Amino acid sequence: MLRSNTCGELTISDLNKEVTLCGWVQKSRDLGGMTFIDLRDRYGITQLVFNMETNADLCEKARKLGREFVISISGKVIERSSKNKNMKTGEVEIEVTSMTILNASKTPPFTIEDETDGGEDLRMKYRYLDLRRKPVASKLMLRHQINKEVRNFLNNEDFIEVETPYLIKSTPEGARDFVVPSRMNPNEFYALPQSPQTFKQLLMVAGYDRYYQIVKCFRDEDLRADRQPEFTQIDCEMTFIEQEDILNTFEGMMKHLFKTVKGVELTDFPRMTFDDAMRLYGNDKPDIRFGMPFVELNDVAQNQGFKVFDDAELVVGICAEGCSEYTRKQLDALTDFVKKPQIGATGLVYVKVNADGSFKSSVDKFFDTQKLKTWADKMNAKPGDLLLVISGEVNKSRKALSELRLEMGKQLGLRDNNTFAPLWVIDFPLLEWDEDSKRFHAMHHPFTSPKLADLDKMNTAPGDIRANAYDMVINGVEIGGGSIRIHDRDLQKKMFDLLGFTEEEAKAQFGFLMNAFEYGAPPHGGIALGFDRLCALFGGSESIRDYIAFPKNNSGRDVMIDAPATIADAQLEELFLNTVKPVAKG
Amino acid sequence: MLRSNTCGELTISDLNKEVTLCGWVQKSRDLGGMTFIDLRDRYGITQLVFNMETNADLCEKARKLGREFVISISGKVIERSSKNKNMKTGEVEIEVTSMTILNASKTPPFTIEDETDGGEDLRMKYRYLDLRRKPVASKLMLRHQINKEVRNFLNNEDFIEVETPYLIKSTPEGARDFVVPSRMNPNEFYALPQSPQTFKQLLMVAGYDRYYQIVKCFRDEDLRADRQPEFTQIDCEMTFIEQEDILNTFEGMMKHLFKTVKGVELTDFPRMTFDDAMRLYGNDKPDIRFGMPFVELNDVAQNQGFKVFDDAELVVGICAEGCSEYTRKQLDALTDFVKKPQIGATGLVYVKVNADGSFKSSVDKFFDTQKLKTWADKMNAKPGDLLLVISGEVNKSRKALSELRLEMGKQLGLRDNNTFAPLWVIDFPLLEWDEDSKRFHAMHHPFTSPKLADLDKMNTAPGDIRANAYDMVINGVEIGGGSIRIHDRDLQKKMFDLLGFTEEEAKAQFGFLMNAFEYGAPPHGGIALGFDRLCALFGGSESIRDYIAFPKNNSGRDVMIDAPATIADAQLEELFLNTVKPVAKG
User: Which residues form the Aminoacyl-transfer RNA synthetases class-II family profile domain (chains A, B) (predicted)?
Assistant: First the structure.
């Protein structure tokens, strides 16, 4: 045994014990004839004390230790004179009697402290040092804890974990696959899974009843800040169930996670249809930590001579409580915000419902006080509130106002990271129309079941068919989504027809699943939760990258190991491949 | 809720309950005016009964159900007249009052029974049907249970699971990598990990102290029956430990698994040095469910005029207890066995120690009774035993005799699948000489630590240096292996020198890990266990393929989904790749 204890466990009840600790030198300070060292390991920090008077040699040696040196010390647990009540180990220190330097360290390229002086790039290159910092380490510990509780819950609910393969087959639908050339099967490629979707459905056909897997998935997409080429999914599927069973099961799981990991009791999840979510929040993943719902104003704001509104498909506003005192500058900033290209509104109309009952708006020229009052009434505004109104094409206006609502929520402190507002968004449309290809696409995937009540719209109004599809949303973040699957061959055929597949095309793309469905496929459905995102939600962070031990940057590179990299010609030859030099664009 | 109960839970205590069950039609039989159906789901089988007298329509409908149809039924739990005490549900049946056909099924291509009429190829193509068979399903359930208990144990021991990346960098050492072309980084490739070795060492440098992961690994090797291109590893690493700590921890884990999963109390694991294992069993993973150790006979068998022995480096034998009555035919079969090319002995000498005390051997011409008796004494043979002796070059003879020993163990019923004999093989050599390249290779990997006591052999006899490396062996199967790693830069440099690396080469191949070692690397070490093989051991099977839901065949193909497959030209173009037609050999 190299140590008798960790750096996180000794307390006043261990006084006078002879102990041996190992760890890293966090910091060191000389005070009078003493040298104090904070010794750190995963479990905590314990203070060491070296005394120049009683053991000059050892104290000299201690004074030469650099930050991040790895040492082993033996000594006696004694009471500290100046106690730190904020730390478990803060009442004791170790009077060191012997020390071994287990390893030296060069000076790290950035400080290993909660607040570091290292920039993102440097920290990524030396990720193994960044991982030593407590805020980073605690995120990975949190991830482990959530993983554990997910398993506890699902195991307890009779789900079994089944590992599905990573070397599968490329499918032309959906996002781009990463592919893996096969040496044994020249000129053929495996694909890395974007999700185990088809395999989990096959497991249901095989009778496994309740399946889960915490599994890596891969998408070769152009990366944004919150995307990674490899990400982790909690993938689940159930048999002999209806939508209600899935919602209840996974609402239960989320309550279990919040309770066990964060000590938070979640309320029952409200449910909102996709249509309501779009109408009231302009968004299929509304943040309902705060209200501020959309109010459509067409009937009270149009046909009053204001051309911008009159020409608009939709006039829609929100009421920002207590914001009537917003300054010109603040209002201009909001206008600039909604006019950003990625938000896309052409302008912003405001109406101040002043505390004295008077009104002041950016459209006073067109609307008198009485008119503005009808708006205010419709929006349940009180004196002191501020109305913010956007107009134009329906989808664009909703999108812009949704962003503005989130921005106002932020400005008003209504989006507290320690408040959690879960929600099921249900009744998603089955299909979405694609203008480019002039055909319907499956909004979820082609195996998603339509609502039986909407089946008669298959021929007349396919765009109006609702699906048995649902998303779990917490604080405006889509944590997961899923659907009840089609298990009936005739219905599946109709679905393929709607999507414009010929029977041959359907067979070529989904042949093995279609075959499986011929042999007694049970009713089934499932859900997949984004594990990285779930961890970020629990940790109160925006970035999933913080919750991944070795993430990739926005070019898909691991800068620490410098991957991807060129490979040897012999390797390419064995794989029957030639590389083609990219031609410079322009 | 589509069902009130599963098919595995209703018993006599549920009598008269109205229930709804869902499942697959396992089989059906008509008996008098009744029709009986075995309804199957993951949890079990429940008998349904339909009565032609009381409900003719329903009974007619039931008689038309084919095997593997998916149905939902409602009815009352009643007591069976002919009870099956071997099944939990065997005392009751359901008097069906209503039935819905949830899905029809074509006739499966093979019977869904414990013993099926389907060949391997057919069952792999329809793996989702094969997975319905109880012997297959129970193997995956077992796998889940072992997975769960591994986690329970390691979580309880303060290990944390950290996910390491799948898209990493190709390294020229070791087995062949699968590579993944990068679209965003043209002409560069990721590699899929053969193991998370370097990442787990980086996690130790980062201070994570105790890490584990149950993780997929990939090796592009020519496949044998017990190899898969993707396989699962229980990967672990610990900090501030010595070899003894690792052996104790993972011996503890294995005892926990055997106890919780199989109800078996394992004994303490004996330890055997690599040298002893080779000398006594000719094998670094001896099956010690039975004895039959090797006895070296050079001193008593050489220089007696038998040229075959006199020319041999080693004369070595085993004593097969009670086999002196083996027939000529049996002995010839054993000779044929050891002469097989993959076993490679040139011949087999036998000595029968007859029950009456006389001897009969295949070398009576060269050795008289008195000589043979010295052999028998040396081998502790009793009357009735059979001595089997092989001679030749040391390694070859040991290998051949090892195979013969295992074969004799099998013939004598000494290798019972329900007996478990665990073992640590320790003190592996650090290096092995490679005749082809005329240099030393690392036997485990270049970061394996030599034994401090052997450091003085670094310059004089590097081949004799023992490593702090160990294998866990159970019933002759290598379940896992690991080592204490080098954490000292100077020692690491010496190791690279021994392996013939220049500093530049070492940097190019292991640069990021070498860099990390500059910043306070702690003493650490670990182990990796083959999860598929562990499951097979628990299940008493030889083949790991049985324990993988969707395995690949010996050509690395998934015949169910037909992967790998060609991909679209556009996909290749995006990846800046051309395929090269393989040239026919010959």
Answer: 140-551
